[in-house]
Amino acid sequence: MNHRHLLPNEIDLLVDGEAGFGVAPLRAHVAECDECRARLDDARIVVDALEALPHFAPDSRLADRVMAQVPVFVPAHVAARDSVTRWLPQSGPARAAAAVIGTSIAGLLTVAMIWLASRGDAAIFATSLFADRVQSLVMGTARDLAFSLLGDSAVAAIQASGMLGVTLLVLGFLGTAVGTILGLRRLATASSRRG
Amino acid sequence: MPHALDLANLPDADVVALALEGREAAHRELIRRYERPVFSLVFRMVRDRELAEDLTQDTFIKVLSHLDRYRSEFKFSSWLFKIANNVAIDHLRRRQLDTVSMDGSPHATTPDAVMASAIELSDHSESALEEMEAKELGSAIEQAISRLRPEYRSCILLRHVEGRSYEEIASTLDLPLGTVKTYIHRARHELRRALEHTRE
Questions:
Q1: What ipTM was estimated for this complex?
Q2: Can you give the pTM of this predicted structure?
Q3: Quick one: how far is CA B46 from the chain centroid?
Q4: Which of A58, A102, B79, B192 is disulfide-compatible with B39, CB 3.0–4.6 A?
């Protein structure tokens, strides 16, 4: 028998139920030493009492009180995904039918694209024609809109200022838009917290 | 979105991910899972039910408002307990500024210094509310826990009431592993002495 009594940290190892390499000799010592066994039993009484302590329950309205003060935002990508999910059919057969229809449309479009690609000249001609039409439509609409909103003199001033003026105008517009969005978001957060 | 019943079967990390997607049900599920452990820890730290309710509420508001700061490589519960413990300790420190400490100076670095700066109360004049709390926290072990230093109390409660490992406690309380072991050893020693006293 090892006559050295256990150190306090060795008693802790046994109380914690450690199973390391050096624990077996400690257990063997305790089995033969009444004093150390008594110290270990005392330590276990404390641990058993601690582990028997119950959890207390808070007020049942805790969750409501917390949620009244926590702003919950749905991120844009989640909202978009939810919207798509809502449009999808719920039942299995309906989803299968939607998949068949979707695949057929995708297949037809793919074939059309391959056909167009195989006729390069025709595709380029049709694309450039379409692009010209779209460009003239967009430019015409933008010019009409600018004249009606800003007036002739303002549009003339913008044209005279060249690319720099247009860039500054666009940056000013974007800055105002971003500032407005952030302001509205802060207002929404503040009202959500108050609510 | 998973059905409300499914949330109860999801691991914490998945519920947190759903909460980050703006699902209120996931926020409520996190509260449901941890309101009792957090409240129990805080209640045993501050020993005042109404105050513990307020501090528990503050804890959950902080956690749920800053879920985006949670790092998923750690256990959610460890992060939650860290914030709960900080909220309770901050309150105890603020209260120490207003009142004289019964637990010994927080600046004491040795057990003797702690004992020297602690105050023994011989007469407890309790209000009705305090009596009610005393019944809840009235067992010998609860009384003994209340007399531990707050640092020891956090460690021993996390270890034996919440069943956390030494490593988790060290991570939760931002303490070195050796310090956690020392605190738990000293807390057990003090509790053992307190219980011996009650048995005599």
A1: 0.75
A2: 0.64
A3: 9
A4: A58
